[in-house]
Specification:
Helices cover about 30% and strands about 15% of the residues. It contains nine helices and nine strands. It has helices spanning about 1-10, 60-70, 110-115, 135-145, 160-170, 180-190, 205-215, 230-240, 255-260; strands spanning about 45-50, 75-80, 90, 150-155, 175-180, 195-200, 220-225, 245-250, 265-270. The protein has an eight-stranded parallel beta barrel, surrounded by six helices. Strand 7 (about 220-225), helix 8 (about 230-240) and strand 8 form a beta-alpha-beta unit. Helix 1 packs across helix 2 (about 60-70) and helix 2 runs parallel beside helix 4.
């Protein structure tokens, strides 16, 4: 744990990039029905860092994404909003107020305007310097740099084609998952069959609510459940129907072990370290 805090202190002093261009190049986001990514085909235990490694760096920040990559996570999760000028940024809340020195809806600003705000809340924020709201491109670049699966939750966007084009322009088409409400997932699936799509289950709603939604999509689909909603019998039922099952957010190692033993396809965590057996190459 001491090494982890040392690493996070070093990473948090890295100043993020202040701006990034919007990808406008034409990229074919529509894939043939036979194409499916292999993000769930690798062995080992799959941990995804929730909003980056948010237990040790401010959520949805460059240091949080970098720290997740350097610690060898299988995946890095983030949330996406679209700006007034068609860019995409990483932010969990619909408003800026909780995590930045700005105020108001994220979607009411342009990318340049959002660049004036600073992330001022989160784990170890006191040793962070000039943290800006990351762009989607910056996030994807970090995922690809460390070989992590990009676990993308759509919050509010308008241009699904542009989102997919940016994913493919960054080389992440076969290394990502897209999550969100069923309407957004239907829009993604209408344009793309390679990327797994998932709805999200929230406690105390029964697991069947999300199951009914995702069943509208015939294959390459799943649900990310708040872990108390599901147990081994439910995960087995989902797998029998070729439906992936992830669980969030698990910060207790015993509970994580339990759900991995149940066969959950991945575990989202704020704090748990990824297994050393998964770390390799530049992630070590």
């Amino acid at each position: 744990m001491l090494l982890l805090f040392t690493a996070s202190a070093v990473l948090l002093k890295i100043s993020p990039r202040d701006s990034a261009g919007i990808v406008t190049a034409s990229v074919d986001a529509v894939k043939p029905v036979t194409a499916q990514s292999d993000v769930f085909s690798t062995g080992g235990e799959r941990f995804a860092a929730h909003r980056g490694y948010s237990g040790y760096a401010p959520e949805n920040s460059i240091p949080a994404f970098e720290l997740a990559g350097r610690n060898g996570f299988w995946g890095i999760e983030t949330d996406i909003y679209e700006t007034t000028d068609g860019a995409f940024v990483c932010m969990h809340d619909e408003d800026l107020d909780r995590t930045t020195d700005g105020t108001g809806a994220v979607t009411s600003y342009s990318l340049e305007e959002l660049g004036a705000f600073k992330i001022d809340t989160g784990s170890n924020v006191e040793i962070s310097e000039n943290l800006k709201i990351p762009t989607f491109d910056e996030y994807l670049g970090i995922c690809m740099k460390y070989g992590c699966v990009a676990v993308i939750e759509i919050k509010t966007i308008r241009n699904y084609d542009a989102l997919l084009n940016i994913i493919y322009a960054n080389g992440a088409g076969g290394r990502c998952i897209i999550m969100g409400n069923i309407n957004d997932m239907l829009e993604i699936r209408a344009r793309n069959t390679e990327i797994p799509v998932m709805t999200i289950g929230y406690t105390p709603a029964p697991y069947t609510d999300s199951l009914a939604d995702i069943s509208q999509i015939p294959d390459n689909r799943g649900v990310l459940y708040n872990y108390p909603q599901v147990d081994k019998s439910v995960i087995d039922l989902l797998h029998q129907q070729n439906i992936y099952c992830g669980v969030w957010s698990v910060d207790d190692e015993a509970i994580a072990d339990e759900y991995l033993a149940y066969g959950a396809d991945f575990v989202v965590t704020n704090e748990l370290p990824p297994r050393l057996s998964y770390m390799s190459g530049d992630n070590e």
